[in-house]
């Protein structure tokens, strides 16, 4: 279950982001997950709950926002949202593409009390 390692890394990033601030409590963490990131949101939520049972993040809420996958057509240059496979450009019907977003996982925001 790579979601546990991923969540540990995300929480480490949250801790680094708040360490030089007078934060008393983290209330909410918003994470963006790309459609092609190969991450199970339920497993990510479970890992978050298990890892925030005490300390500054105890009781914090996790919000996971799904981000669409976007491709760039190698032939006509169109950018389009990927809805499934096979991936085909809606403008020119080409199967030549590169994914430009939708594989990422990142912290969008951290709500905390100082």
Any descriptors?
114 residues; alpha+beta; three-stranded mixed beta sheet; three-stranded antiparallel beta sheet; 25% helix; elongated
Descriptive report:
- By secondary structure, this protein is an alpha+beta fold.
- The protein has two helices and six strands; from the N terminus they run αβαβββββ.
- It has helices at about 1-20, 40-50, and strands at about 25-35, 60-65, 70-75, 80, 95-100, 105-114.
- The chain has a three-stranded mixed sheet with strand order 2-1-6, with helices on one face. A three-stranded antiparallel sheet has the order 4-3-5, with no helix packed on it.
- α2 links the parallel β1 and β2 (about 60-65).
- The mean pLDDT is about 95.
Please summarize what this structure is.
The chain has 114 residues and is an alpha+beta fold. The chain has helices at 2-18, 41-51; strands at residues 25-34, 61-67, 69-73, 79-82, 97-101, 105-113. The strands form two sheets. The protein has a three-stranded mixed β-sheet with strand order 2-1-6, with helices on one face.
């Amino acid at each position: 279950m790579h979601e546990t390692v991923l969540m540990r890394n995300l929480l480490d990033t949250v801790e680094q982001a708040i360490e030089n601030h007078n934060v008393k409590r983290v209330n909410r963490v918003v994470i963006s997950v790309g459609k092609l990131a190969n991450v199970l949101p339920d497993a990510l939520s479970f890992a978050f709950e298990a890892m925030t049972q005490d300390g500054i993040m105890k009781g914090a809420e996790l919000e996971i926002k799904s981000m669409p996958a976007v491709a760039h057509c190698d032939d006509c240059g169109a950018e389009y949202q990927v809805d499934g496979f096979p991936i085909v450009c809606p403008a020119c019907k080409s199967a030549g593409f590169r994914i430009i977003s939708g594989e990422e996982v990142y912290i969008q925001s951290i709500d905390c009390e100082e």
